[in-house]
Amino acid sequence: MMSDFSSWVSARQSRFEDVLKRLLPQADATPQRLHAAMRYSVLDGGKRVRPLLAYAAGELGGAAVERVEIAAAAVELIHAYSLVHDDMPCMDDDVLRRGKPTCHVEYDEATALLVGDALQSLAFQLLSEHRLSDDASKQLQMVKLLAVASGSRGMAGGQAIDLASVGKQLTLPELEQMHIHKTGALIRAAILLGAHCGELDQAQLDKLDRYGKCIGLAFQVVDDVLDSEADTATLGKTAGKDADNDKPTYVTLLGVQAAKKMAAELHQEAMDALIEFGAPAQRLRELADFIVMRKY
Questions:
Q1: Rounded to 5 degrees, what are φ and ψ at 198?
Q2: Which has fewest Cβ within 10 Å: 21, 72, 212, 225?
Q3: Looking at the domain assignment, is residue 295 inside a domain?
Q4: Is the entire prediction scored with pTM above 0.85?
Q5: CA-CA distance, 267 to 292, in Å (whole number)?
Q6: 3-class secondary structure for 151-216?
């Protein structure tokens, strides 16, 4: 195990980029424009937080890295599809993502719609065509886990609540409920899918799920703070977009300082969930630190 966290992150990010390049359809394969747009939307961008969490949870459970990275790729493809669709004019109507034009700007709206559809399908293809567990029922459970995290009771449902909340003043429990679905569901899924590739008992999985719930919420709280404090160049996406669109955020509800305090409290809850794992959970602790202390 690499002692230096930044070296571990760099090595995993580099390896994962190669995995994505291999698993995505090649740009010269028919239909070329769709495949090129899929690669454009997925490759060379993002912090890869979800795959890093999957790698760390997989290591905790002694999973083969070749299995974990397939599960991580499935989650990342769902995440990338959600960003492509979120940025479209019918939703958030944004022109910048990861420091480059959004998919519908670089290509067109119809292509962007199909990119999201195709990435979602590819995610489930990967989960079903690769052996990720020696127990077939366990692998089927992994497919269900990602499906629920992606659908109306997860990410898509959270986005629906988000769109319906424009111009409204939500309570803190309502805002948390929205983000447990919209942002938190996929983060929790990434951790659990990585863990399911290894050998952990149900009590351990429950603790990891608690960690994922807390760090998923903290991720969104920090996102809201950064959206209010950082600039577009730093973020790689349009700064202040939520405020301009009159969307409820943790900053508009609580103020910047109280939002930062909430992120710190969630960070501590996530750390508490890992206590029984001891030293082997160090990467998950470091990732929690990274999520809460990041500047972009």
A1: -110, -155
A2: 21
A3: no
A4: yes
A5: 7
A6: CCCCHHHHHHHHHHCCCCCCCHHHHHHHHHHHHHHHHHHHHHHHHHCCCCCHHHHHHHHHHHHHHH
CA distance readout (Å), 106 to 91, 110, 116, 245, 272: 17, 12, 15, 23, 44
- The token duo for 141 is 């459970």
User: What does the pLDDT look like over 76-119, one tens digit per residue?
Assistant: 999 999 999 999 999 989 999 988 999 999 999 999 999 999 99
Rounded distance, CA 57 to CA 108, Å? Answer: 37
Q: What is the pLDDT of residues 149-193, one digit of tens each?
A: 999 999 999 999 999 998 898 999 999 999 999 999 999 999 999
Residue 76: give the domain boundaries.
Answer: 5-290
Q: Which CATH number do you get for residue 200?
A: 1.10.600.10
Residue in 35, 2, 6 with CA at minimum distance from that of residue 287: 6
- Residue 34: is its pLDDT beyond 90? yes
What is the token pair recorded at 51?
């795959």
DSSP helix/strand/coil, 137 = helix
- The two three-digit tokens of residue 215, written as one number: 């760090």
By CB neighbour count within 10 A (0-12 exposed, 13-18 middle, 19+ buried), where does 177 fall? Answer: middle
40 located within any domain: yes
**Amino acid (1-letter code) at residue 152:** S
Distant-in-sequence, close-in-space partners of 18: CB < 8 Å, separation ≥ 6: none
Does residue 296 lie within any of the structural domains?
Answer: no
Residue 216 covered by a domain? yes
Q: What domain count does the chain have?
A: 1
